Amino acid sequence: MKKLLVRSALLISLISIAQEEVKIVDVESPPIYPGCKRGSNAKTRRCMSNKIAKFVVRNFNKNLAKDLGLYGKQRIGVIFKIGIDGKVYGVRSRGPHPKLENEAIRIINMLPQMDPGLQKGEPVIVRYFLPITFFVDGTPTITRQLDSIKRSLEKPLN
């Protein structure tokens, strides 16, 4: 019975270590994105951020915002976790339109598997926040229509 209790306590403590969640800025050793090398934490984080940003820029459908009638600066906040296996999960997003939120989730779920972050030498779940910001160029159709109507009203009647 005593051995069973000791084994149970050990198993529970191992599970709690494996389930520990740490913010990307607080983790002792950040996750490593493929192509990045483990070095100083600052360099590893910077490499990871740059690789994720390039991945998002390359794959995100920015025309979607224009198709939705959105113009100007658009910002989508994305929160996700990198698990103890290095896979991305738990992706959530907030943005100006549900379709943009879904696009952000789709892209982040496509990220490749990474080496997990480490805390006290053990893999941990790492929380990551990514702001996706882009500018949609052009004038909204409704604005062009209103300008056209305004110009036609300003013309003298013959």
Q: Could you explain how this protein is built, in words?
A:
By secondary structure, the protein is an alpha+beta fold. It has a single domain (20-138), classed as Fusion Protein Consisting Of Minor Coat Protein, Glycine Rich Linker, Tola, And A His Tag, Chain: A, Domain 2 (2-Layer Sandwich), CATH 3.30.1150. Helix content is 42%, strand content 25%. It contains 5 helices and 5 strands. It has helices spanning 2-18, 41-59, 63-67, 98-109, 141-154, and strands at residues 21-23, 72-82, 88-94, 117-119, 122-136. Strands 1, 2, 3, 4 and 5 form a 5-stranded mixed beta sheet that branches. The longest helix is centred in the first third of the chain and has 19 residues, at 41-59. The radius of gyration is 23 Å and the shape is elongated. Residues 4-18 have low confidence and may be disordered.
Summarize the structure.
This protein has helices spanning 2-18, 41-59, 63-67, 98-109, 141-154, and strands at residues 21-23, 72-82, 88-94, 117-119, 122-136. The protein is an alpha+beta fold and 158 residues long.
Write a concise keyword list for the protein shown above.
elongated, five-stranded mixed sheet, alpha+beta, 42% helix, Fusion Protein Consisting Of Minor Coat Protein, Glycine Rich Linker, Tola, And A His Tag, Chain: A, Domain 2, 25% strand, 5 helices, 158 residues, 5 strands
